[in-house]
């Protein structure tokens, strides 16, 4: 069986799964930037002490799963979300849903994801794909970051659905429960609540590690990396920062460009010039994130190595923090 | 970033897919375009892989010097750490750490060895080979 399903490529996997599943139930207004913005996807956090792949734990986006959850909630779309302790039950439920004609979102680990290039297969468990059919032993897969659809065998799919470690998917499956109609006024409401929540996340989370404070915190840390970690390890840390920021799935500039696109689209629903002005600020911020990546690359490729080079890297981040602070402050002051 | 500035560099994605980037068109509106990759992030990924290869080489040396059990080598080879290996085996982290010691490893039952071997996608004989032939 194969569900009549349209694969549309996205920059980020969860945005893509959200957009494609919602389009499938007839919500034609939804786009990747709208899903990202309504789901308050933009974020920044540096979690000290925690190590990922022996490097720092840095994220430019919100917790996995939240974009889908928040977008559906904001648009009053009921959701089914299930995890499983039994692999057999997980497969039975998946097969049942496919039989009913329901394409489903699945959280998977990428280490065993056979169609990914080897270079990208780390133990990262928050990838999202859509399964939209099954024929004999093969499942039809729509991986939103890919141009084309693909497939996985029963065994391969089970293995990635039950990958272990941090953020283990435990067979997680999710989809909109029923077809609903979403009005433009609901989209407007979702845009407002999405922006307000993003303002809160970036400006008002207490403590130094998250939001704008987190960017400044990272800048402070980077200045000390050369002395505290030694040059070699500092290079590894900078490379990890750049990967989290620019790798496939970010849309470039640490998701800032997607957010800038969201604000432009939001303007179509809520014509307030402040949205266009802040969109420009996020474009600028994304551009500086990219300049910072070029600076970081100078260091990890060995062209730059002095303390001054690390200080300059920090300066980029201070500048970004200032711009994003202004942008979110401007958003917080919009009278809707 | 302007659409015309979207990098089209060589990367490991080349035989896999192009990726979507968001950028501004001539009129200042956001649009998307495909990218083959960016040299800056291709080299970041390369840095990560050089580190992994170093870790594997160090682990190999420790095993050959009888300072660690082959589990350490295969753990690094599979890009795992103690936390991930603990999650896959179901053993506590301190138990996994004990299994990294050669003298403890030598006393492990075949049942436990089979569990590790399956996770590492090898057979027991290969796991027990402390000379790491063909690895």
Describe this structure in words.
The complex is a heterodimer of chains A (336) and B (135). In chain A, 51% of the residues lie in helices and 15% in strands. With 336 residues, chain A is α+β, with helices and mostly antiparallel strands. Chain A folds into 2 domains: 13-30 and 79-176, Alpha-Beta Complex (Cathepsin B, Chain A), CATH 3.90.70.10; 184-332, no CATH class. Chain A contains 11 helices and 8 strands. In chain A, the strands form 2 sheets. In chain A, strands 3-8-4-5-6-7 form a 6-stranded antiparallel beta sheet, with helices on both faces. A two-stranded antiparallel sheet of chain A has the order 1-2. Chain B has 135 residues and is mostly helical. Chain B has 2 domains: 3-37, no CATH class; 48-128, Orthogonal Bundle (434 Repressor (Amino-terminal Domain)), CATH 1.10.260. Chain B is 50% helix and 9% strand. Chain B contains 7 helices and 2 strands, in the order E-E-H-H-H-H-H-H-H. Chain B has helices spanning 39-64, 70-77, 82-89, 93-99, 102-105, 110-119, 124-128; strands at residues 19-24, 30-35. In chain B, a hairpin with a 5-residue loop joins strand 1 (19-24) and strand 2 (30-35). Chain B is elongated, with a radius of gyration of 22 Å. The model of chain B has no long low-confidence stretch (mean pLDDT 95). Classes of the chains: A alpha+beta (336), B mainly alpha (135). The interface between A and B is large, with 56 and 39 residues.
């Amino acid at each position: 069986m194969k569900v009549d399903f349209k694969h549309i490529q996205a920059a980020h996997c969860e945005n893509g799964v959200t957009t494609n599943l919602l389009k499938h139930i007839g919500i034609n207004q939804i786009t990747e930037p709208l899903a990202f913005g309504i789901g308050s996807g933009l974020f920044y956090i540096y979690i000290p002490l925690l190590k990922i792949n022996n490097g720092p734990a840095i994220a430019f986006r919100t917790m996995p799963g939240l974009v889908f959850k928040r977008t559906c909630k904001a648009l009053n779309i009921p959701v089914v979300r299930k995890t499983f302790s039994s692999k057999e039950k997980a497969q039975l439920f998946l097969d049942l849903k496919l039989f009913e004609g329901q394409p489903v979102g699945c959280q998977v680990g990428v280490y065993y994801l056979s169609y990914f290039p080897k270079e990208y297969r780390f133990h990262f468990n928050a990838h999202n794909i859509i399964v939209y059919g099954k024929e004999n032993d093969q499942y039809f897969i729509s991986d939103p970051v890919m141009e084309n659809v693909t497939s996985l065998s029963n065994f391969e799919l089970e293995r990635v659905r039950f990958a272990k470690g941090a953020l283990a998917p435990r067979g997680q499956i999710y989809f909109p429960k029923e077809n609903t109609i979403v009005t433009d006024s609901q989209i407007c409401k979702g845009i407002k609540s999405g922006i307000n929540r993003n303002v809160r996340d970036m400006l008002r989370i207490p403590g130094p590690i998250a939001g704008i404070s987190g960017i400044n915190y990272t800048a402070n840390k980077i200045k000390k990396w050369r002395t505290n970690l030694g040059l070699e390890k500092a290079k590894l840390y900078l490379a990890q920062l750049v990967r989290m920021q620019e790798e496939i799935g970010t849309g470039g500039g640490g998701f800032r460009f997607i957010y800038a696109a969201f604000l432009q689209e939001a303007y179509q629903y809520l014509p307030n010039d402040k949205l266009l002005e802040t969109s420009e600020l996020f474009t600028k911020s994304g551009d500086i994130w990219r300049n910072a990546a070029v600076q970081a690359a100078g260091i990890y490729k060995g062209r730059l190595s002095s303390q001054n080079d690390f200080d300059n890297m920090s300066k980029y981040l201070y500048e970004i923090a200032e711009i994003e602070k202004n942008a979110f402050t401007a958003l917080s002051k919009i009278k809707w | 970033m302007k659409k015309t500035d979207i990098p089209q560099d060589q990367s490991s994605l080349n035989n896999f897919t192009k990726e979507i980037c968001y950028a501004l068109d001539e009129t200042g509106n956001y649009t998307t375009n495909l990218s083959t990759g960016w040299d800056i992030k291709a080299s970041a990924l390369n840095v990560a892989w050089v580190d992994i290869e170093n870790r594997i080489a160090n682990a190999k040396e420790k095993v050959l010097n009888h300072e660690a059990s082959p589990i350490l080598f295969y753990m690094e080879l599979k890009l795992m750490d103690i936390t991930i290996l603990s999650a896959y085996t179901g053993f506590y982290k301190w138990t996994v750490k004990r299994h990294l010691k050669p003298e403890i490893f030598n006393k492990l039952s075949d049942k436990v060895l089979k569990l590790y071997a399956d996770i590492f996608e090898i057979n027991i004989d290969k796991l027990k080979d402390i000379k790491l032939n063909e690895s």
